[in-house]
Specification:
The protein has 161 residues and is mostly beta strands. It is built from no helices and 15 strands. The chain starts with 16 loop residues before the first strand and ends in a 6-residue tail after the last strand.
Length: 161
């Protein structure tokens, strides 16, 4: 074993994210460790805990905070940069593509698309999708695939139908 962190508090919800020499782990907080030494660099408590995966874009770490919203943290300090209360998703997976974070809500039947830098909606939010399973979406450079009760597909340049 290279290192371990004996005082981890929280619960595990998603795979850890490695970004450069940092390791991000979720639970009731987001924890940032130095990947080489195991030193805890910062911890940021998240209201409602972290629901699903993390994504990193430039200096921002995007976190879905349970069903209370999405937030962007400075990935070096843990300081909250933005908060979007309108992403009431219950999702396992955030997907980053071209600076936009996508997620679906399993209970509310919506697709959310949020600018990773600003937290502002990309203009494609709240498309009704029907109840979606987890994980429900895959993106490629050309197409976005969304699984719902009435499965749909769209090109990246049009909205999800």
């Amino acid at each position: 074993m290279v290192w371990q962190y004996p005082d981890f508090k929280g619960y595990y919800l998603a795979p850890p994210l490695v970004d450069g020499d940092r390791l991000y782990v979720t639970g009731s907080s987001v924890f940032c460790f130095d990947l080489n030494t195991g030193n805890l660099l910062w911890e940021k408590p998240i209201e409602g805990g972290v629901d699903g995966s993390l994504v990193a874009h430039n200096d921002i770490l995007v976190v879905q905070a349970g069903q209370v919203g999405m937030c962007g943290l400075n990935k070096y300090t843990g300081t909250q940069v933005w908060y979007n209360k309108d992403t009431d998703a219950n999702t396992w997976e955030l997907i980053l593509f071209d600076g936009i974070v996508y997620c679906t809500s399993s209970g509310y039947g919506r697709l959310y698309a949020v600018n990773a830098e600003t937290g502002l909606p990309s203009g494609k939010n709240n498309r009704p999708t029907g109840k979606t399973p987890k994980p429900a979406m895959r993106l490629s450079p050309v197409r976005a695939w969304l699984s719902t009760r009435s499965a749909g597909c769209c090109t990246r340049r049009t909205s999800i139908m």
